[in-house]
Specification:
Number of strands: 3
Distance between the termini: 78 Å
Strand order of the largest sheet: 2-1-3
Number of helices: 5
Structural class: mainly alpha
Strand content: 5-15%
Number of domains: 1
Largest sheet: 3 strands, antiparallel
Shape: elongated
Helix content: 40-55%
Length: 127
């Protein structure tokens, strides 16, 4: 659920700040029609910075704000664009990193097994 910011958008001259928490069915159908990408392909392409996926994302976010621009005209000035995790996501990442580090530390720690007396040690000897 990234925080997406565009300053002085080249499509509409407005500053935008969106939290993208996923697409609705209608939006997914629109993305499929515009790009041919399924939900999974769209997510993967977005992670890779695919220009068609980014254009579709910007198109959908503008539609949410009731700003209509032709898909072919969607543009982006990357110097005015940011996509960052929300504060909540940052905390979740930090917690996950701490857990993974603790698990790795525990896995690397030498295991010392303490054992009690063996049967032989506790057996009675005949003299």
């Amino acid at each position: 659920m990234p925080l997406i910011t565009i300053k002085e958008c080249v499509n509409c001259d407005i500053d935008h700040e969106w939290i993208f928490d996923g697409a609705s069915l209608r939006e997914l159908r629109m993305i499929k029609k515009l790009t041919g990408m399924s939900q999974k392909a769209f997510a993967e392409a977005g992670d890779e910075g695919d220009p068609e996926a980014l254009a579709a994302l910007i198109y959908v976010l503008h539609k949410r704000d009731r700003i209509t621009i032709p898909f072919e005209d969607v543009d982006l000035d990357f110097s005015k664009f940011t996509m960052e995790p929300t504060e909540e996501e940052k905390r979740e990442y930090e917690e996950l990193e701490q857990r993974m580090k603790a698990e790795a530390d525990n896995a690397q720690a030498p295991k010392v097994e303490l054992s009690g007396p063996t049967k032989k040690a506790g057996s009675k000897r005949k003299y």
